[in-house]
Amino acid sequence: MKENDFLDNTTIISYSGDNYEKTDFSSISEIDFSKNKTNIKWLNTYGIQYEEAFKTIVHQNKLDDFLIKLLSDDEHPNKVILLDNLLFVTIRVLKTESHVLDSEQMIFIVSTDFLWSIQEKKGDYFNWIRERLEGNKGIVRKKSADYLLFLLLESIIDNYQDTYQENAELSADKLNSSHIKPTPEFTSLVEKRKQELFNFKKATLSLRDTIIKLEKVEIKGVESKYFSELKEQTNNLISNIDFELQELESKINLIFSIQGHRLNEVMKTLTILSVVFIPLTFLAGIYGMNFENIPELKFKYGYFILLGIMVLITIISIWYFKRKKWF
Prior knowledge:
The protein has helices at residues 2-8, 51-60, 66-72, 127-135, 145-174, 184-215, 226-286, 302-323, and strands at 10-15, 20-24, 40-46, 79-83, 86-95, 102-110, 114-119. By secondary structure, the chain is of the alpha+beta class. The mean pLDDT is 83.
C-alpha cells in the first residue's frame, strides 16, 4: 500500500532538445536513471516519508549509499553535500498559499543527467517549468540538470518575491502613514506585519546561504555560474524586507511619539488647572478656618471682595499662561 502511495505521488519527465516524455510508474523497479543517457530526467516525489522506496531507488540506481541516511532523517537544516558524482541539497521553504505562513522540506539530488526533487507537501511551485519543458520554450531542454536546479530554486525565490510584493501592497493600504493611529489595533497590525517580514527574511537568508554554498561547489557537469544571479535576487529581496522593516519601526516610533505628545498635552492642561486653583484653594482654606478673631469675617462686603480677588487671580493666571504660550 505504501509503495502504491509512493508511485501515485511520483512522476518522471525525460527530455532533450528533440523529445519530451512524462511517465507514471506501476513499479519502483521502472525508475531507472541510467536508461537513455542522452536524455535529462527529472524525478519528482511528493512526500518525504517513503524511506523504503527511497532506499530501493538508491540501490537499484547504484547511487551513493550515504543518500539512504540523508533521506531517512526527518529534519534537515539547509545544507549542500557533495557525494560521489552527486549533489545533495536540502532547504526549508515557506508555504505561501495561505495567510498563515507554514514551511516544508525540499530535497534536490542532482547529477549530470538527472535531478530528483522531493517535496514534503504538494504544491504548484514548479508547474511553469513543466509547461516550458513540455512546450519546448526557452533553453531549458537544451541544458543539463544543473540548469533545471537553477530554475527550481529561481521558482522558489520568485514565489517569495511575488508573495512579498502582494503582502506589501496590502500592508501599505492598511498601514498608510496618513492613517496612523495610536490604537492597540493599529499597533497589532504593525507587529503582525513585522513578524511576517521576519519569517520571510529568515527563509530568504537561509536560501541565500544555500545558494552561496552551491556557488562554491565543484562537481563535473554542474555549472556554478547560474547561482550568482540567484544570490543577487535573494540580496534584493532581503534589502526590500529590511527597508520595509525600517519603515514599520519608524511607524511604531511615531505612534509612541503621538502617544507621548497626547500625554504631555493632558498633563499640561491638568497642571494649568492645578496652578489656577492652588491660590484659590489657599484663600478658601484661610477663610474656612473656625477661628473667632478673623477680622475680615465681620466685614460687610468681605465675601464679595474675596470672590473678586479670586476672579482677579484667575484672570491674571490665564493671561500669564497665554503670554507664555502654554496653551
